[in-house]
Design brief:
Elements lengths: L6 H16 L19 H13 L6 H18 L3 H12 L19 H10 L11 H20 L2 H10 L1 H11 L4 H21 L19
Helix pairs in contact: 2-3, 3-6, 4-9, 6-7, 7-8, 7-9
């Protein structure tokens, strides 16, 4: 029986292995998954940070983000400063989403069910509002109602008086005396003081009245 020597094959194998080991290895990393970039809205962040500081317990983190988004979006739509809306919330509810007044007004902006129903007849919220808590949807309605009052009464003070006492009462007073009673203007002054305080604390980047807003942001009824 003839046996073939194996050492030449072994030598060739060792030579090939040594050559491969001496070559530099280049490992191409697997491509990283593409994460879509989501732009951060600085105004929403500013409002959210303030809510975190001002209402860390009463408004939980998820609701805080939804409230901040609604405030900024609706304020821009109406031509308001976001801080003005925060000032109304401060005076009305002390940032308590579950606050209920003696007149059964509810929520962050203290609106009665009959008022919300009336606003809903004229205003249609964005589709995403269907996925928001009722308190946030009502907040959107409230900001739109405040814009309606300012368009109707033309000045911030009278709009706030109408918000507080009712538009019918303010119109009656104006028709009879040409003036708004002091007891109703006191609410307006309180909100305006809080608005000035917030602007001093947080800055003054946004418009303060509807007259300063872009024309497209002011929509007729």
């Amino acid at each position: 029986m003839k046996v073939r020597a194996r050492w030449p094959l072994r030598a060739i194998g060792l030579l090939a292995f040594g050559t491969a080991a001496a070559m530099p290895w280049s490992i191409t990393p697997s491509p990283k998954p593409v994460v879509p970039h989501v732009a951060v809205d600085p105004e929403i962040e500013r409002v959210a940070r303030y809510l975190e500081w001002r209402a860390p317990v009463s408004i939980d983190p998820l609701l805080r983000r939804q409230v901040a988004t609604a405030v900024v979006e609706e304020a821009r739509r109406a031509g308001f400063d976001s801080l003005f809306i925060l000032a109304v919330m401060e005076v009305e509810s002390d940032f308590l989403p579950d606050a209920v007044s003696n007149a059964n007004a509810r929520g962050l902006l203290q609106l009665r069910a009959v008022t919300l129903k009336e606003i809903a007849r004229h205003e249609e919220l964005p589709e995403k509002a269907a996925f928001e808590p009722e308190s946030v949807a009502n907040l959107r309605f409230g900001i739109r109602y405040l814009a309606m009052m300012e368009r109707r009464f033309r000045t911030r003070e009278r709009a706030l008086a109408a918000w507080n006492a009712g538009p019918g009462a303010v119109e009656k007073a104006l028709s009879e005396t040409g003036e708004v009673p002091e007891r109703w203007l006191a609410f307006a002054r309180k909100v305006n003081r809080e608005h000035r305080r917030l602007r001093t604390r947080l800055g003054t980047e946004a418009p303060t009245t509807m007259a300063q807003a872009p024309r497209a942001a002011i929509r007729a009824e």
